[in-house]
Design brief:
The complex is a heterotrimer of chains A (414), B (277) and C (296).
Chain A: H1 2-32, E1 37-43, H2 46-49, H3 51-61, E2 64-70, H4 72-85, E3 91-95, H5 99-104, H6 112-117, H7 128-132, E4 135-136, E5 139-140, E6 143-148, E7 151-155, H8 156-161, H9 171-182, H10 200-207, E8 213-214, E9 217-218, H11 223-237, H12 250-254, E10 262-265, H13 268-276, E11 284-287, E12 298-299, E13 301-307, H14 314-324, H15 327-337, E14 340-341, H16 355-364, E15 367-368, H17 376-393, H18 397-412
Parallel strand pairs in A: 1-2, 1-3, 12-15
Antiparallel strand pairs in A: 3-13, 4-5, 6-13, 6-14, 7-10, 7-11, 8-9
Chain B: H1 6-37, H2 42-46, H3 60-67, H4 71-101, H5 107-116, H6 122-135, H7 142-146, H8 153-163, H9 168-176, H10 181-192, H11 194-209, H12 213-218, H13 227-233, H14 242-274
Helix pairs in contact in B: 3-14, 4-8, 4-11, 4-13, 9-10, 11-14, 13-14
Chain C: H1 5-36, H2 43-47, H3 58-63, H4 67-99, H5 104-118, H6 121-132, H7 138-145, H8 157-184, H9 189-197, H10 202-213, H11 215-230, H12 234-239, H13 251-261, H14 265-295
InterPro entries (chain A): SBP (IPR006059)
Signal peptide (chain A): 1-26
Keywords (chain A): Signal, Transport
Chain lengths: 414, 277, 296
C-alpha cells in the first residue's frame, strides 16, 4: 500500500522532529537564566536597522542581546499576550500611541529615577511633544527614540499653475488652492481630507484653538472643534477633496497628473514619494502645516524605548536603552531606517541637512501628541465612524459631534 | 455514459469545457495578476495605468526575498510545522473514525462539543490559550507552536462524514476474521478513505504552510518564525512594498500547487477504490 | 456477543487524543472566555488581575443597545443568507461540470478553481483592492469598455456588501468544489449505467442519482459554510475595515475591533458568545433537517 507506507514515513519524520523539539527546549532553558543575555522587541525588520548598533553594544559591554523582529501588524497582539502572562522582553520598542495602554497595565517599568539622575537622557534634551508620550502622572516610563510629525506634501508644479509659488500658509490659502486645483477636470481634487486617519480632524481642531479633553470631559461639541470640522467638510462639499478613500497608491494619487496634489502625512511617505511616484525632484515639496486661527500644530508620533516591568535583567536592559539613546546611536538609526531623532541636538548633524528634512524639524517646534489616555484609540475609531456620514452624505457636523461627545463621556467615566 | 450517442456526448463535453474555461479565466485572473506583478518594480505597480504584463521584467523582488530576510530558516520551520500537522491529521482521522463507526457512551454530546469548538472565533480564545501554554512552560518552543493547531473540529467532522459512508459489512467481516480494531483502522479504513485523506492532506498542508499567528505569538525568538511571519516582517509600519508582497505570496503558492498536483492522483485513485466488488 | 471491558474502551482510544487536545486548547479557553464575558476586563485588568471587576450581564445588555453591534448582526445575517446558498450552488455546479470529463483539461480546471483558496490573504487584498478601485480598477475599466458603470464597488454601502460577498465566494468555491468532487467520484458508475439503459438523460441522472448521493456532502458543506459565514472576518478586515458607514462590519470584526483594537476584552467576549449562540442554533436546525431528510 503506497499510502500507508507514505503515512509511515511521515510518522517517523514526526518522531524525529519531536526529538528536535526536545533539543530546542533544553537550549532554551539554559540561556534563560543567564543574566548577561537580554531580549529586545522591535517592530519591523531589525536586521538592517538596529542589529549593527546592538552588535557594537555587545562588543562593548559583553551583554548579549537577542533582537526579536515583530511585524507591526501583530505588534499589539504580541504585547497583549506578554502583558497578560507577565513574561516577555527586557527592552521593548513602544509606539507612542500604545504607551497609555501599557502604562495602565503596569507592563512598563517606572524609570523616573534614571531619567532624573542621568543627564544624557534628561527630558529637556528631547522634543517636548515626544517627552509627553513618556510621562504619566509625573512619572517617566520610557525614553523617546524616534519621532514622527505630519507635514503638508504638495506638487510644486501644479500649485504654480494655480498661482501659488509656495505652499499654502493659512487655512484660507489651503482652501483656495485646493478648490482651484480641483477645477482641473473630472476625478481631480485639491487636497485629501483624510477620513481613514483618526487624528486628522482633531489636529485641525487644535489648530483652531480647541482643547480636546478637559479632565474627564470631552470638548468635541464645543465651537473650536465644530468650526474646524465644518471647515474640513467644506472641502468635500465643493469637490476639493475626495469623499471616499480612493485606495490609490502614491504613484496614482500624487504622481503624473496627481488627482490629489496635496495631502498631509508623516516622514515615512518621503521614501515612497521619492521611489514610487515617478516625479522629478523639483516637482514636489513638503511644507509646515498651514496655520489655523490659533496655530499650525501637527501631531507627534514615533517610538519610545521602555524597560519591560517583568524583566529579570532590568539593569542590563537599562544599559542598552541608554546606549541606543545617545546622539550617535540615534543618528546611526536615522541613517539605517530614516526614523528621525528625538534628540534636539542631533538635528544639527549634516546627515539631516536636506531642506525637506529640515521642514520636519521646523514642524516639530509646533507638534504635540494626541491625548495620552488608554481610551484614545477607541475615541479615534468612534470619531472616524461619526465623520464618515459628514464626508459621504453631508451630515450635520454639530449633531455628529454632540453624539461623539456623549459617547466619549460615557467611555471616560466607565 | 459511453453507450449513448457519442457525438452528442462529445458536443456536451465541449460546451461544458467552454463554460468552465470562461469561468476559470475569470477565477484565475486575480491570481495571474499577483504572479505577474511579482515581476514588476514597486514603482511600476504604483503607477496609474498598469499593463497586465510587466513593462520591465525584474527578478529583484525575489532576490530581495532571499537576500534581505532569513527565508532559509523560515522555510525549515515551516516544513517542520507542516510535518507535524500531518500527525494532527492522523489524530483527526482516528477521532473521525471513532465517531463514525463506534457506539459508545457520550458519543453524541462529545461530538457536539467538538463541533462547538468551531463556533468561537480564534481572536477570543487567543489570550486564554497563550496563558495555558505559558503555564505548561511551552511558550517559545516548537511544541507550543504546533500543539494548539494540531487537531481541528472541521477535520474531525470531515472524516466522520466520509467514514460513516463506509459499509459496515467490511468492518464486521474483518472482525469475524479476528482482526484487531487497530488493524482494521490501518489496513482497511485508511486505504478506503484515500479521497478524504487527499482532501484533508491538502488542507493540512495549506494550514501548516500558512501558519502565522501562533508561530508569532508563541515564539520569543526569530529562529522559530515561519514563512508567513517573515513575509509580514517585510511590511513597513505605514507603507507597504507591493512588489515584495506579490513575490512572497507567489513563492508561497508554488509548493501548494505542486502538492495539489501530486494529491490529485490520489483523488482519482480514490475513485477506483470506492467501486465495490 | 458480550462486550468485554477492553472492547468498551477501544472506541475511546480512537477519539481521546484529539479530544484531549481540543479540551485543552479550545474548550477550556472558551470557558475562560465565557467567564471573561461577565467582567469588565480591559488592558488595566490584563496586567493586574486584581483590577478585574465582575459586572454580571452588563456587557450583554449593553451590546443590545449598541447600534454598531446591532448593525453588525444585520450585516452578518445578510452575508449568511446570500453567501451560503451562493457558495453551495456555485461550488456544486463547478464540481459537476468538472466531473463531466476526465482528461487533462478538466483536471487542470480543478487546479484553476482551487488557486483562490490557497492565495495569501495579503496578496488577495492588494489585488482585489486594485480590481475594485473606482477610477483605475480593472473591473470598472472592463465594464466601461462595454458601456457600463462605473460601479462604486467598495464606496457605496449597499454595493460594498455585494463586493465582499463576490470576493469571499471566489475564495470559497475551490475547497467546497473539492469536497463535492471527491463525493461525486465515489458514486458507483453502475448506477449511471443502469439509468442509461432506462433511457434517463443527463439532467435526470443528475437529479435522481447525483444529487441524492451527495446529500451527505451537501449537508457537510452547508454546516461548515454556515459557520464560516457567521464568522465572516477576513474580507471586511482587509478590504473595508467595516465601512463605509459600518455597512460591511460583521460580528466577528466587531469582536476583533472591541477586543484587540480597544482592549475591551469583556465586551468583545460577550459579543462572541451571542454569535456563538446564533451559530449553534443554525447548526442544530441543519442537523434536524438532515435527520428529517434521511427519515424520508
Amino acid at each position: 500500500m503506497k499510502l500507508t507506507k507514505w503515512l509511515g514515513i511521515s510518522a517517523a519524520a514526526v518522531a524525529a522532529a519531536l526529538l528536535l523539539v526536545g533539543c530546542g527546549n533544553s537550549n532554551n532553558s539554559s540561556s534563560g537564566s543567564n543574566g548577561k543575555s537580554i531580549t529586545f522587541w522591535y517592530g519591523g525588520d531589525a536586521d538592517t536597522a538596529v542589529k549593527p548598533m546592538v552588535d557594537a553594544f555587545t562588543k562593548k559591554t559583553g551583554i548579549k542581546v537577542k533582537i526579536q523582529s515583530i511585524p507591526w501588524s501583530q505588534y499589539n497582539d504580541k504585547l497583549l499576550t506578554a502583558a497578560a502572562s507577565k513574561s516577555g522582553p527586557d527592552l521593548v520598542l513602544m509606539g507612542t500611541t500604545g504607551m497609555a495602554n501599557y502604562v495602565s497595565s503596569k507592563s512598563l517599568m517606572d524609570i523616573s529615577k534614571e531619567v532624573k539622575s542621568d543627564k544624557n537622557i534628561s527630558p529637556d534634551k528631547y522634543f517636548e511633544g515626544s517627552v509627553r508620550t513618556t510621562e504619566f502622572n509625573g512619572k517617566y516610563y520610557a525614553v523617546p527614540w524616534y519621532v514622527e510629525t505630519r507635514v503638508l506634501y504638495y506638487r510644486k508644479d501644479l500649485l504654480k499653475q494655480v498661482g501659488y509659488n509656495e505652499a499654502p500658509k493659512t487655512w484660507d490659502e489651503l482652501y483656495d488652492a485646493a478648490t482651484k486645483l480641483s477645477k482641473r477636470g473630472k476625478n481631480m481634487y485639491g487636497f485629501n481630507v483624510d477620513f481613514a486617519e483618526p487624528t486628522f480632524g482633531f489636529m485641525f481642531a487644535r489648530q483652531n484653538g480647541a482643547t480636546l479633553i478637559k479632565g474627564k470631559t470631552p470638548q468635541f461639541n464645543k465651537k473650536p472643534t465644530v468650526e474646524a470640522l465644518e471647515y474640513l467638510a467644506q472641502f468635500y462639499k465643493n469637490g476639493a477633496s475626495p469623499k471616499q478613500d480612493l485606495k490609490l497608491t502614491i504613484g496614482q494619487s500624487f504622481g503624473g497628473k496627481a488627482p490629489i496634489p496635496m495631502f498631509i502625512s508623516g516622514p515615512w511617505m518621503m521614501a515612497s514619494v521619492k521611489k514610487d511616484a515617478g516625479l522629478k525632484d523639483d516637482q514636489w515639496g513638503v511644507a509646515v502645516l498651514p496655520k489655523g486661527k490659533d496655530n499650525n500644530m501637527s501631531n507627534t508620533g514615533g517610538g519610545n524605548l521602555a524597560v519591560f516591568n517583568y524583566s529579570k535583567n532590568k539593569s542590563s536592559a537599562m544599559k542598552l536603552l541608554k546606549y541606543l539613546s545617545t546622539e550617535s546611536s540615534q543618528l546611526k538609526y536615522y541613517k539605517n531606517s530614516d526614523s528621525m531623532p528625538t534628540l534636539k541636538s542631533a538635528w544639527t548633524d549634516k546627515s539631516l541637512s536636506d531642506s525637506r528634512i529640515q521642514v520636519f524639524r521646523k514642524q516639530l517646534n509646533s507638534s504635540e501628541p494626541m491625548p495620552l489616555i488608554k481610551q484614545w484609540d477607541q475615541i479615534g475609531q468612534n470619531y472616524l465612524k461619526a465623520w464618515e456620514p459628514v464626508a459621504m452624505q453631508g451630515a450635520n457636523v454639530q449633531k455628529a459631534m454632540d453624539q461623539l461627545n456623549s459617547q466619549t463621556e460615557q467611555l471616560l467615566n466607565k | 455514459m459511453i453507450n449513448g450517442n457519442k457525438s452528442a456526448v462529445r458536443n456536451g463535453k465541449v460546451a461544458v469545457g467552454a463554460i468552465l474555461l470562461f469561468w476559470g479565466v475569470i477565477t484565475i485572473l486575480p491570481f495571474l495578476w499577483m504572479f505577474l506583478s511579482s515581476f514588476k518594480s514597486n514603482a511600476e505597480i504604483s503607477q496609474a495605468t498598469q499593463n497586465f504584463l510587466p513593462n520591465h521584467w525584474t527578478f529583484d523582488n525575489y532576490k530581495r526575498l532571499f537576500v534581505d530576510s532569513n527565508f532559509g530558516v523560515y522555510l525549515k520551520n515551516t516544513l517542520i510545522i507542516t510535518l507535524f500537522s500531518f500527525l494532527g491529521m492522523l489524530l483527526n482521522a482516528m477521532a473521525g473514525y471513532g465517531f463514525a463507526k463506534f457506539k459508545f457512551k457520550g458519543r453524541g454530546p462529545l461530538f457536539i462539543l467538538v463541533l462547538a469548538t468551531m463556533m468561537i472565533p480564534g481572536q477570543v480564545t487567543m489570550i486564554p490559550v497563550y496563558l495555558i501554554l505559558n503555564e505548561m512552560h511551552l511558550t517559545n518552543t516548537l511544541a507550543g507552536i504546533i500543539l494548539p493547531g494540531l487537531v481541528g473540529a472541521f477535520a474531525i467532522f470531515l472524516f466522520r462524514q466520509f467514514m460513516s459512508n463506509i459499509s459496515n459489512s467490511i468492518i464486521e467481516a474483518a472482525r469475524l476474521d479476528g482482526a484487531s480494531e487497530w488493524y482494521i483502522f490501518w489496513h482497511i479504513i485508511i486505504p478506503i478513505s484515500k479521497p478524504v485523506l487527499a482532501v484533508q492532506g491538502i488542507l493540512t498542508f495549506i494550514g501548516g504552510w500558512n501558519a502565522f499567528l501562533w508561530p508569532l505569538i508563541i515564539a520569543n525568538d526569530q529562529k522559530y518564525y515561519t514563512l508567513s511571519v517573515g513575509l509580514q516582517l517585510l511590511q513597513g509600519q505605514h507603507t507597504s512594498d507591493y512588489g515584495l508582497q506579490m513575490a512572497g505570496s507567489s513563492f508561497m503558492v508554488i509548493p501548494i500547487v505542486i502538492i495539489f498536483i501530486i494529491f490529485q492522483k490520489y483523488i482519482l485513485q480514490g475513485f477506483n477504490v470506492q467501486a465495490e466488488k | 456477543m458480550a462486550k468485554t471491558l477492553r472492547d468498551k474502551l477501544v472506541p475511546y482510544t480512537f477519539v481521546l487524543p484529539a479530544l484531549l487536545l481540543l479540551a485543552l486548547f479550545s474548550l477550556i479557553p472558551i470557558f475562560i472566555a465565557l467567564i471573561i464575558s461577565f467582567t469588565g476586563l480591559d488592558i488595566t485588568g490584563l496586567g493586574d488581575w486584581s483590577q478585574i471587576k465582575f459586572i454580571g450581564l452588563q456587557n450583554y445588555t449593553q451590546l443590545f443597545h449598541d447600534s454598531a453591534f446591532l448593525q453588525s448582526i444585520l450585516n452578518t445575517g445578510y452575508y449568511v443568507v446570500i453567501g451560503v446558498p451562493l457558495v453551495i450552488l456555485l461550488s456544486l455546479t463547478v464540481a459537476i461540470l468538472i466531473n463531466f470529463g476526465q482528461n487533462r483539461f478538466f483536471r487542470f480546471m480543478r487546479l484553476v478553481f482551487y488557486t483562490p483558496s490557497i492565495t495569501n490573504t495579503v496578496a488577495v487584498a492588494v489585488v482585489w483592492t486594485y480590481m475594485y478601485n473606482p477610477s483605475m480598477g480593472l473591473l470598472n475599466n472592463l465594464f466601461g469598455k462595454i458601456g457600463m458603470g462605473p460601479f462604486p464597488w467598495l464606496s457605496d454601502p449597499a454595493t460594498a456588501k455585494i463586493s465582499l460577498i463576490i470576493l469571499a465566494v471566489w475564495k470559497a468555491i475551490g475547497l467546497n468544489m473539492l469536497i463535492f468532487l471527491a463525493a461525486l467520484q465515489g458514486i458507483p458508475e453502475s448506477l449511471y449505467e443502469a439509468a442509461e439503459l432506462d433511457g434517463a438523460g443527463w439532467w435526470q441522472q443528475t437529479r435522481h442519482i447525483t444529487l441524492p448521493s451527495l446529500s451527505f456532502s451537501i449537508f457537510f458543506v452547508t454546516v461548515t459554510t454556515l459557520i464560516g459565514w457567521f464568522q465572516f472576518f477576513d474580507e471586511p478586515f482587509v478590504m473595508t475595515k467595516g465601512g463605509p458607514l459600518n455597512s460591511t462590519n460583521s460580528v466577528a470584526l466587531f469582536v476583533y475591533q472591541n477586543g484587540f483594537q480597544n482592549s475591551n476584552f469583556g465586551y468583545a467576549a460577550a459579543g462572541s458568545f451571542i454569535m456563538f449562540a446564533a451559530i449553534i442554533l443554525a447548526t442544530l436546525v441543519q442537523f434536524k433537517l438532515q435527520k428529517k431528510q434521511q427519515g424520508l
